[in-house]
Fold:
Amino acid sequence: MSEPAPAADDRIPGGIFHGPTAVQVGDHNTMHNRFVTEKRSPADAAADNLARAVAAQWEAEAGLRRLSSTLPVRWALSGRRIAGRAAGAVESSRKARFDPLPGLAPVTEEVLRNGGELAALHAVYGALPAGRLLLVGPPAAGKTAATVLLLLTALHYRQRAAPADQPHIPVPVLLTLEGWDPAAESAVEWAAGRLSRQYTSFLGARGRESARMLLNSGRIALFLDGLDEVTAKLRAAMVAALEPAPCRLVLVSRSKEAVLTGKKARLAGAAAVELQPVRPEDAADFLLDPLPEPAPKPWRTVADRLVAEPKGVLARALSSPLAVSLVREVYAEVGPVDELLDTTRFPHPRAIEDHLLDHAITAAYTPRSGYPRPDHTPEEAERTLRHIATQLTAENTHDLAWWHIPSWVDARPRALAVGAVIGLIDGAVATWAFWPDVAPIVACLNGMIVAAIFGLLAHHAITQLSRPAPLSSSSWRDVFPRGSIAIGFIHWLSAWGTSVAISRMPTGIDPMPLWVYLAVTAPIGFAATVGAGRGYRLMKGTTFYFNSFFSNQIEGRQTVAAFEGRSIGPRPVWHHHTRLRVLIGLMNGVAFGLMFGLVASFSPAGPDWVLRLAVVNTVWPALYSGLLTNIAFSTTLTAVQMNARAGTPVRLVRFLDDAHQRNLLRAVGPVYQFRHARLQERLARDH
Structure:
């Protein structure tokens, strides 16, 4: 007996044999196969690509933060004056802004009031008619960790959905609100700009347009952290600017700041949920789970006290995920964890939390069996992190961008040192170049003049990089975007044709072969190519700097280095930026050296003069575009300067990556942040 043909939506490619029949009919008969395929739109493909990048980014970050074995996320409907009535958030009589995600039931007021854990929170996020969820809690309540876990839950839900449903499930993206000026750009424009700097698939003008399209079509859900970290005036403006956003929103904030913001601006139809304190029994289980059975006596004593005295000092201190996780990190399996029960040393919960924060760095950098040996002592690590925390707090920021480090100390010492070294190098090269052809005193005088000029230019370049600014170079696709090579090729041919035409004029000088003109004008095409992309600053200060029109069109664009199809982290930014700038600097120097060397090869001066001219015109372009205007080089010099002054590591960026691996810092896009704002506050205050 034949099975009924499936509905059109259930069709699959190929034929299915339904038994030994003489004649077969239907869409799936073996005599007449019919292949039904569905072509995915560019928007769906872009969303899938983003989903893969976001999943790789936050699964790796969750592993470093040890969120897979974290405490349960418990939440309840907030009773604070943050959002409107719960009934208004789930009301079905008005037109819903968003339908529930495929597979999710409409959220009811009862569901909101019952609260629950992570799965229930995802069900609320995916079914709110207005698509607006406020996630609040007191300091150290684990808001960021809960947001990351919710984001991963939403990603996994999308991955497990049927292919036909995936386009209707948005890709969650976590961004921090710091740096957004709602008066200057809309929420969509700001988010598109942030996405273009954090994910490689959105680099360049076309990438940003793709991000804008995904946001406007609701294919991206914005998880926005850090509302409490901006000024009160900006908070209200941000909430008002987010109101018309065409995508789902999850807004994360401390409870106090959320209440203050709610007095001035609210998201229509939003539901506000609040993270609940850690239950004593959950904290006890979390502490005992990794220990052998029976657990060491000090740990059993602490766990028993937590359960027996749910309102005691210890239970109130360990009511936050941060404090509970710090207990497990600070104390070894045989450590004196029961000292936390001493009410003389720790008379109130804040004393216990401060004690744990004070020992977090020591615990992270103490050698342990089975873990890589730290490259830094606990004292050096603590000294460095205190210095960094103090600097960030003075700047009123939580974002640590390594390319801003040169602004932390006085640039004059390193600018003078670099200027002197570059002046000596260029002066020596110039003296060597002219020594055989002029009097020694003239050659030395020429070298001194060259040393002074280029030393001052080097001093100026290092000083310029001491001011906080966006990165001036980016990925290969940004330095050489589509169309820039064609522009460079046109410039090259134009310059070649012009030079050939001039050479044919009646000047009495024999023209050089055509291939020589083609070779010597190649740097002009190279300059135009770089000028048309985002690496235009590489050409400033060199012998030629063409294409000012194209460089003016892109002035001020913020870019970062990246790898194709991935999220952009601090360490890849450092590596790729450094290698790219040095390599293009060498290309720049060799191009100009080749040009002048080829021209000089047709002069009667001889090969020695050709060599000297080529070297002279190679050194300065290579040094300037490869090192002097390279923010990574300036950051390295600053780290050396900070080592002499404050005792911080010379390889500072490597230290930051190590601190990230040890869960003292977290990576948010291309910048670092302290694991928790309380840790930064504590370190800065003590320093």
